[in-house]
Write a structure and sequence with these properties.
eight-stranded mixed beta sheet; about 725 residues; 38 strands; Rossmann fold; Peptidase_S9_cat; alpha+beta; EC 3.4.21.26
């Protein structure tokens, strides 16, 4: 579609600029499945294919597809009873296999896998493009385990085409068949929500029950208790939130001796209430709120409660700092005690990345200048027969009886993740290490014991040649003097500036307290680094790299700080000789798509090309589109006075037809029911109407992830990398 054509089309008449927020000539593109809108999408997709197609596109698509379909990927597993389950996709299984093996077999180079559910076969049988959303398996009671009864009750979540909305269907792990509704099987119709096990004949259900039962964000407002063999309409109401809540759900802990029912009420992002529910389903039902700040996260394990603070808290004369991790015996806390133990307190360079319970221990993952450190904390526990001192190699004991030791794994500039193998019965943990140039490794170790080197179970292959490449962490100053870290990956002579300027991609996110950490990507390595590109990642404010304060520094009216941070990193890449603006590209997705939109409209002079993926762009309309209302705690409410600052970072309204902009690629998915595809569609149409250099690609499937299978993911990746290389490289790719 040429610029001349769009300007003669009454639907796309060029509006006055800056765009009047009270009018929107491109509103028709918000009709997601509307034929007129889809005709426009098909036309833009055809244009994208024509512009980007060629030898480079074909080569990149093949290289990426080989990585995604590789049989040498690490098959990560979850322990369920004696089996270890894995979900797997490859060239022969595009939708994927849910399969299982034993630990002894998993330790071998070629495990024997038993297929539990074949999504490709299921989709063909049912005529549906199912996308895996996960499964939940009911833990048998101690009596059932003693009797040798197998784990058989599973709830499988499947999405049509990759949307957030999905269905839940009960699955029998013994017969490997779905349990039909006429046989008493639990089935939840397509909606945002879910089911969670209470016992073998009961679930909690939170879903769309009809008019008035969903929140403005499109999530469940009610949770009910549903008994097998009864109609969903007869399920008993457990809790109903208000019209302005974000999400209501419930769950049961099945740890023997510590069975508890909890109701979860998300008021908005960063504000939650958790209730202890007793007597559910009887006349004695009662809900007791766990009395912690709404901004805090609460977690329970056996007799312990953990509280992770986002704001300062003074419950009984003692102030606990935001970013801290606190512990207390749960029953004592509910009885009124406020005797809390500080397990972690942040420093100017450290933040809490996560926690993982095992049977007897708590692994605390800390970020120090965006690098992982692991600590093992052991609570006082009379049920532990073996003395604590014999279970830790080194450590210190606090007045509360908690013991701390260090868990040394990983290395410089590597990301380390930890997950419990069996949180109820064992102290084993999976340890995953990865880095920009270091393929992922999966290891197994036991925490709390005299430390030995973790047992390496699986290692991913190298998908690209890393010889001559290096990774470094750098820091630069933002406009207000804040120290901002970023990573740079590429050939040593390029990242040093000796052989520049290099085609460079700068990636960022900067939102929702999400930290961006180093990780291996065969796709980036093959499609970009091996061709002589440099890859950089900016750890800007709005993220979680330095805890809640780093996030809160760029909320709402302060959002500009995230954009100033990113622009500072872009300038530093130029100042250090890595690249020049004409050869510097940037990419962001989702909230990062909003970042990309603001780089496009506020800092166009810094970039030679920009990719805007599954983005928010119209900040006047965002809260009225799909899940947008749930993000007002992050951005603000455009229907109030907040619009005065929101309009300052609403790319759709900042666009100026008279201004020069770098070439831009917009990508989204028709099936994205989280961030409305109308954002990308309307911005592309607005820019096309002004004659700007715009490429647009919308995948019909894929949801917010953009792709529903490896073939679609490879095509999307080829679109991205070909666009960047064509725009940023002055010499043809080999």
């Amino acid at each position: 579609m040429s610029a001349e054509h769009t300007q003669t089309d009454p639907r796309t008449a060029l509006p006055d600029t800056p765009l009047d927020p009270a009018t929107d000539p491109f509103a028709w593109l918000e009709d997601v499945e509307g034929e007129t809108a889809l005709d426009w999408v098909r036309e833009r997709n055809a244009h994208s294919a024509a512009v980007l197609g060629g030898d480079l596109f074909t080569a990149v698509e093949g290289e990426v597809r080989e990585v995604l379909d590789s049989d040498d990927k690490i098959p990560h597993v979850s322990k369920v009873g004696e089996h270890y389950y894995n979900f797997w996709q490859d060239a022969a299984h595009q939708r994927g296999l849910w399969r299982r093996t034993t630990l002894d077999s998993y330790r071998t180079a070629d495990p024997e896998w038993e297929t539990v559910l074949d999504l490709d076969a299921l989709g063909e049988q049912e005529g549906e493009s199912w996308v895996w959303h996960g499964a939940s398996v009911l833990r048998p009671t101690p009596e059932q385990l003693a009797a040798g009864e197998p784990r058989r009750h599973a709830l499988v979540d499947l999405s049509p085409g990759g949307s957030d909305s999905d269905v839940t269907r009960e699955f029998d792990l013994v017969t490997k068949q779905f349990v039909a509704p006429e046989d008493g099987g639990f089935v939840r119709a397509e909606a945002k929500g879910g089911l969670s096990w209470v016992d073998a004949d009961t679930v909690y259900v939170f879903t769309d029950f009809g008019a008035g039962t969903m929140t403005p964000s499109g999530y469940p407002r009610q949770v009910k208790r549903w008994t097998r063999g009864t109609p969903l309409a007869e399920a008993t109401l457990v809790y109903e939130g208000t019209e302005q809540d974000m999400y209501i759900s419930a769950s049961r802990s099945h740890t023997p001796g510590f069975e508890r029912d909890l109701v979860h009420r998300a008021l908005r992002f960063y504000a939650n209430e958790t209730y202890l529910a007793t007597g559910v389903g009887t006349d004695e039902q009662a809900l007791t709120k766990i009395d912690v700040p709404d901004s805090a996260n609460v977690g329970l394990h056996r007799e312990w409660m953990l509280v992770r603070l986002r704001d300062d808290w003074t419950p009984s004369g003692t102030t606990y700092r935001a970013g801290s991790l606190l512990a207390a015996p749960f029953d004592d806390f509910m009885a009124g005690s406020r005797d809390l133990t500080v397990l972690f307190e942040p420093t100017p360079t450290t933040s809490l990345a996560g926690t993982t319970w095992t049977r007897h221990h708590l692994v605390v993952n800390v970020l120090d200048d965006v690098k992982n450190l692991l600590h093992v904390l052991t609570p006082p526990d009379a049920s532990v027969v073996e003395p604590v001192e014999t279970r830790v190699s080194t450590g210190s004991t606090s007045d509360s009886g908690w013991v701390r030791s260090d868990l040394s794994v990983g290395g410089e500039l590597l990301t380390v993740g930890v997950g419990a193998v069996d949180v109820v019965d064992a102290d084993d943990v999976w340890v995953v290490t990865t880095g920009y140039l270091t393929p992922s490794t999966l290891s197994l170790t036991t925490v709390g014991a005299a430390q030995e080197a973790p047992e390496v179970l699986k290692s991913a292959p190298s998908y690209f040649e890393a010889a001559g490449l290096e990774v470094s962490q750098r820091f630069t100053e933002s406009d207000d003097g804040t120290r901002v870290p970023y990573f740079v990956v590429g050939r040593a002579d390029l990242v040093s500036g000796e052989s520049g300027p290099a085609p460079t991609l700068l990636w960022g996110y900067g939102g929702f307290e999400h930290a961006i950490l180093p990780g291996y990507s065969g796709t980036i390595g093959r499609a970009w680094l091996e061709r002589g590109g440099v890859y950089a990642v900016a750890n800007i404010r709005g993220g979680g790299e330095y805890g809640p304060a780093w996030h809160q520094a760029a909320l709402k009216a302060d959002r500009h700080r995230a954009y100033e941070d990113f622009a500072a990193v872009a300038r530093d890449l130029v100042a250090t000789g890595v690249t020049v603006p004409e050869r510097l590209g940037m990419e962001g997705r989702s909230n990062g798509g909003l970042l990309a939109g603001n780089m496009l409209t506020q800092y166009p002079e810094l970039f030679g090309a920009i990719i805007v993926g599954v983005p928010l762009l119209d900040m006047k309309r965002y809260s009225h589109l799909l899940a947008g209302a749930s993000w007002m705690a992050e951005y603000g409410d455009p229907d109030t006075a907040d619009w005065e600052f929101l309009r300052r970072y609403s790319p759709y309204h900042l666009f100026d037809a008279a201004r020069e902009y770098p070439p831009v690629l917009f990508t989204t998915s028709t099936k994205d029911d989280r961030v409305h595809p109308g954002h990308a569609r309307k911005m592309a149409a607005l820019m096309l109407a002004a004659g700007k250099d715009v490429t647009y690609y919308e995948n019909i499937e894929g949801g917010h992830g953009g792709a529903a299978n490896n073939a679609q993911a490879a095509y999307m990746a080829a679109t991205h990398w070909t666009f960047l290389w064509n725009r940023l490289s002055t010499t043809p790719a080999a």
